[in-house]
Specification:
The protein is of the alpha+beta class. The protein has two domains: 185 residues, no CATH class; 114 residues, no CATH class. The protein contains seven helices and twelve strands. The chain is globular and about 55 Å long. The chain starts with 25 loop residues before the first strand and ends with a helix. The relative contact order is 0.13.
Length: 331
């Protein structure tokens, strides 16, 4: 049974456990068997994390459910817990932990020992250089401030748990698409179990998917949604930029709000050395003149996008975006 962390209702939230084994993820720590009440899942558009393999689990307290009234921003009950394990090679390097408390959300990372015998709470500042992931490059375990910066810059802190991400209509062209783990839950399974309630009719009548004219466009918009839309959206601190890469499941008759409306032909305020003074976020048909591609293809600390959570360029995604702009977005 998952260990309760919240204490008595209305009481103080206890400190984060010092060891991953005490967060409730495992039913049998010695054999690394995940507790049965923690449900495995995999988003159809995964976040790029320098090539790490990942596993994810969500736990909802007994008798609770997710409010799906807003299909793009699910509301989670107090006591919700989510874990995400990062592996480079066959060895786990880090497990991130998110918990819904009475006061909001809290975030933690647990760093695995090299022999896999323990995973210990990382300091709040994170760990700048963890395991080696490439020549001269080491994985960085984020600070809790970094976690908050990404997870709380949009309408919901749960970035990989949504109607679109858990849709049974999965995008076969999604970069780094993951195999569904054994026993994985998707949107239909959660609704059937009563764990997601109140979903809008227009979402349940047809499995959610990105409305795109080509498979390349669908994959590109999905990638931008998952990797950029947590910060670049219409509700968070960056809303004033009018630069939204978050995809919304619009209802019948609603205007589209995908990335094209704030990027295609839209002037960028960011000056890139070696490019013209006036360049577009996405220049129709010209990925070489599109700031979005230039920044995603860089890991210079001033230029790179995303600014956090990655030290290696996602070459597959950059190639996809270049192809999308050159072939699908010509005028």
């Amino acid at each position: 049974m998952v260990t309760p962390l919240l204490g008595d209702p209305g009481g103080a939230v206890p400190p984060l456990p010092e060891h991953l084994r005490d967060t409730g993820l495992y039913g049998d720590w010695d054999h690394k068997v995940v507790a049965a009440e923690n449900l495995p899942y995999a988003p159809q558009y995964p976040l790029w994390s320098d090539g790490a393999a990942k596993s994810r689990w969500v736990h909802l307290p007994p008798g609770t459910w997710i409010d799906g009234t807003d299909a793009d921003a699910w509301q989670f009950p107090v006591g919700t817990r989510v874990w995400k394990e990062f592996r480079f090679g066959d060895a786990p390097a880090e497990t991130r932990f998110i918990e819904r408390t009475p006061d909001g959300w809290r975030y933690a990372s647990y760093a695995w020992k090299a022999d896999g015998t323990d995973a210990v709470l990382a300091p709040a500042r994170g760990i700048l250089n963890s395991v080696t992931i490439g020549e001269g490059v080491r994985h960085a375990i984020p600070s809790r401030t970094d976690c908050t910066a990404c997870h709380e810059a949009g309408p919901t802190p749960m970035l990989s748990l949504s109607a679109l991400q858990l849709s049974p209509d999965r995008d076969p062209g999604a970069p780094h698409a993951e195999q569904l783990p054994a026993g994985a839950v998707d949107l239909d399974a959660l609704v059937a179990r009563g764990l997601v309630r109140g979903m809008p009719d227009h979402v349940m009548q047809r499995a959610p998917r990105i409305d795109a004219s080509t498979p390349t466009s669908r994959a590109a918009l999905g990638y931008l949604h998952a990797n950029c839309g947590m910060c670049h959206n219409g509700t968070g601190p960056m809303a004033s930029l009018d630069f939204s890469l978050r995809y919304a499941l619009a209802g019948p008759g609603a205007p589209r709000t995908d990335a094209l409306f704030t990027t295609l032909g839209a002037r960028s305020h960011f000056k890139v050395s070696g490019q013209p003074d006036q360049v577009d976020r996405i220049h129709p048909g010209r990925p070489d003149l599109s700031v979005l591609v230039t920044r995603m293809a860089s890991r210079h600390p001033v230029l790179q996008m995303p600014p956090l959570g990655t030290r290696l360029v996602d070459e597959d995604a950059v190639a996809l975006l270049r192809r999308w702009i050159a072939d699908d977005l010509r005028r």
